[in-house]
Amino acid sequence: MIKKVNATYFFLSLMIFFSCSNDDDENVIDPIVGEWKLNERIENGSTLTISNCEVNDRIEFLNEGTIIDRFFEPDTNGNQCREIIDDSGSWEKTSESEYRIIIDDGDVNYVATVVFSQNNTVQVQEYTLNDGSESFTLIDTYEKTK
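User: That's the sequence. What structure does it adopt?
Assistant: Structure tokens below.
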């Protein structure tokens, strides 16, 4: 009788163990999630100089699909950098290597091809912005800060 009970518990335990679903896929964090610092910007093939204020720029991609964009520009005197925070942006992964990135200040909405490297601590975004009749192809390189 005890052997039968032990065998029953053993088989029930095996059934429970093997019937549990693997929830690991639901806990995978997209590599874009985190805070990123702009290191380089190339516009239409020319490398742009990042200003003393722009070196402080950060963009944070949050897990729920929102963006906090912190950028800096010179104050009215040009002596100090003032921080501007735009927390109204969003992002979504549209394919294996593309993301739709929307900064909701009314003029920035693009789909970027994003390539991650160095164990997902560097990302390169390539995208095109249209401004009226002009079109700009940009390649931005970001380094993960947190």
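The first helix runs from residue 2 to 19.
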